[in-house]
Amino acid sequence: MTQKTIELIDRATDRKVNLPVHPGTIGPSVIDIAALNKEFGLFTYDPGFGGTASTDSRITYIDGDAGVLLYRGYPVEQLAERSTFTEVAYLLLHGELPSRKQLDEFTGSIRHHTMINESLLRFFHGFHYDAHPMAMVSAVVASMSAFYHDTMDIYSARQREIFAHRIIAKIPTIAAAAHKHALGQPYVYPRNDLDYCSNLLHMLYAVPCEPYEVDPVAAQALDLLFVLHADHEQNASTSTVRLAGSTGTNPYAAIAAGISALWGPAHGGANEAVLNMLEQIGTVDNIPKFLAQAKDKTSHVRLMGFGHRVYKNFDPRAKIIREMCHKVLARLGRSDNPLFELALRLEEIALQDEYFVERKLYPNVDFYSGIIYSAIGIPRSMFTVMFAIARTVGWVAHWAEMISDPAMRIGRPRQLYTGPTRRDYVEITKRA
Ligand code: CMC
To answer: What is the pTM of this model?
Structure first.
């Protein structure tokens, strides 16, 4: 089969260039513009990367118009209903669902890498009590490179695997320590007999003076949220991990860069921002006033948890979480949650508003996730940390895919320069 090409003609000189078109297995094809600079001396210009594929990848597929999300080909709805976060982690990292033996080995390895070096634990003492947990988590993850020297050879498949297991196993321990530091409570050590999310809840809520029993409803809800947050192709934080990792930096530094990128309210920080917004709105009567502000471009106010760069129909994750909200709140005996009622009304009103309809703005994954997190007792400042724990799996899968590709190059975008043209230095006494 001949390869499809797109012919580009420079009308001024009549020069032509044929740009190859690469098909994917599903989804839009891409135009390979590598020859454009060589032949025409031109770059492409795409601020915000709205129409640019930065890489090829076999991990996650999104169809934004149809509201489809596939991990390694499997629909997220099926995984949410029938799988677990640990199994999804294996799938994202290895490309296939595990056999029983593979899953047991993988789970066992994750469960036995949960402790962090005691010196690393002492880092938390250096933070003020009111430090945002994302600041602590990103700093401590970056610092892991100073402790785990035996996983620094990024070109060793075995070392990459040990790194993957370590970071996935230890990030809940780091997250829980950040929470305990903020509370002024002693750190709680992991319990390797518990599953991933039960262990996280244990480390977040147990105290030395009384027994703590993990609520299985809370653990299940968290596990489902983690499945939904595990990966989302080339989003801002994953692209950050890839860009940082493409320099050959150590993997802990690359993941810490991703955590920092996730923190922003346009990305993973939206879950915290949604609850702040709902509290600020307060009652249903105030919704129209708030929406008027969100539509006013001069206000810098946005309807948090609404809109997505890729989803222009609905976010399949939001649909699952919305249903889950009803069930979890009922099972935890909190079905009269006023913020959930407010969120439902806000969604209903916004979805009928011409501004949001015209722009195809729908609730995204973060619109309802904060309500579930608060129902299971997770404090607001920890919401984005929860997202980071789940997304670590996706970041690691993308980093490993990139590093194991022999064609990997450093990521280095170009620019359209609009500054001053060349000019000569002027002595300070002669400046106007
Ligand atoms: N509230 C009000 N207006 C909005 C919103 C919003 N939430 N989102 C987009 N718009 C408007 C925007 O002003 C623009 O209007 P116009 O065409 O008149 O200039 C139009 O819709 C297109 O928006 P955009 O900013 O060009 O879209 P984008 O793809 O660059 O941004 C987004 C996507 C998610 C950053 C944005 O929708 C947003 O800020 N949403 C609120 C924050 C949020 O919920 N983020 C979580 C994203 S999902 C979790 C994750 O994976 O990160």
So the answer is: 0.95
